[in-house]
Design goal:
It is built from one helix and six strands. The mean pLDDT is about 85. By secondary structure, it is mainly beta. The chain is about 10% helix and about 50% strand. The protein is globular, with a radius of gyration of 13 Å.
């Protein structure tokens, strides 16, 4: 499902990693497609990322996703497109992602 949600990301297994901004461009029960506002490619493949997004409507709804980078390439100068595969999703989390897809959730 196309998303278009603003978010932030961080390398999960690197305590010195700063949060960066991103755009969540698509999401499914398998993973998420991101556009990072940084130019990083080879160093990200195989790394685990944490991605967070919050509903812009001012509600207390937020989503935190964790997964492994399977693909990374330069998208535009200074931007990186990333494909991230979810890891360790619970059955409840899978159902939520499935429901979001069926509803065409827009953030």
């Amino acid at each position: 499902m196309a998303a278009g949600w603003p978010g932030r990301w961080q390398v999960a297994d690197d305590e010195s990693s700063a949060w960066g901004t991103c755009q969540i461009i698509e999401i499914s029960i398998v993973g998420v497609g991101l556009e990072l506002d940084d130019l990083l490619t080879d160093d990200l493949i195989g790394r685990r990322l944490v991605v967070e997004t919050t509903a812009p409507s001012g509600t207390a709804v937020s989503i935190r996703m964790e997964g492994d980078v399977r693909h990374a390439s330069q998208f535009h100068p200074g931007r990186t497109r990333v494909g991230m595969e979810f890891v360790d999703l619970s059955e409840t989390e899978r159902q939520i992602l499935d429901a979001m897809g069926r509803l065409g959730a827009v953030w």
